[in-house]
Amino acid sequence: MGVFLHGYGRCAQIISDPRLCFHQREQSVTADNPLAAEDKPKFPQPEVQQMNRLLIWLLSIEDAQRQKQQEKKEKSISDMQKINTLDQSQKLAAQRRQEAITWQFLHLDLMRHTVSLGNANVWHAIREEGTTKMIKEWSTAERQSICYVLSTRGAPLVVDSASQWSWYLLVSKAHVYKSAMRAQRYVYDRVLAKCKELIVKESSALSRPNEIQFVDPYQAAALHGAKAKQMAFLLLRRTQMYRTVSYLLQHERDELDNYLRSGDPGLTDHMPVWWCPWIHDVALLEGMLIHGVGSYLELHRHDALDVDAVAAFVRRVFVQGDGPQHPPVIDPVKFHSAAEQAAWVRDTSVQFPPVDM
């Protein structure tokens, strides 16, 4: 600071110096007679030159300080951005891990509930007589059971049918003491609306005690946990898939068959070697129409997807051949013995597409 003040004082002293007028006169003489100016030595003005160097040095120091402050500010902003990005990525990773765990728990609950319903013996509960007439409201167990079945298979379209996934089969599978029409009204009026409300609800990675673990239309959305939100998404997703399958099989069957026979490589990607789109995809869609979307055990035993049917198909197409026009895909000479051939057929037949496919 002292050097800086001294510099400004020195500037004032130099400006008030009367010798500066000689410099002005020298400039005027030089402009009038440039040849005479070359013979005479120039006015050196050492104080002005020294002061110019001092001012340039002071200004350079000020610019350097300003640049350092700007770099420090930019570095601080960059560090804050890195910290915020890291925090957001950590929060997002924690939320994704929580969602993955929630999905696993949800599927375990659905499997456990499916097994418990399969082991129960309350088929008389689907008739509106006797005990059914006494129960007017939906109990907590009934609301949970019907929500689990809907999340597994999707909401049906037909009210009363034993040959297709219907509301009659829904109350039968869920073991609720209600009629098919009443279950349909309950799902359309309450459950689906609550599912849409839960989907738009913000999810939190932290779980609260006493959270509702299924879609309960009689409770507020704030009381539902992450598992209930995932179940709501799964319920709407499989309901939409079931309606799409029903529309394709009933209204677009010819277009569907043409596409399955088109030879698109995407139809057999990540599928077993025996998978034939116009045979097994059709069987899969028909099984979904009859048993529901997520009824994997029933789908595995349905028509051409049954293990015995797959084994017969593999043996006929790959080993034996289907007539003179369709020779076997694999040359029987490649198998050294009948036991090796039977083992290959058995191992190939038990391969099944994963659930996500």
From TrEMBL:
Instruction: Spell out the protein name for this chain.
Output: Uncharacterized protein
Classification from the root reads: Eukaryota, Sar, Stramenopiles, Oomycota, Saprolegniomycetes
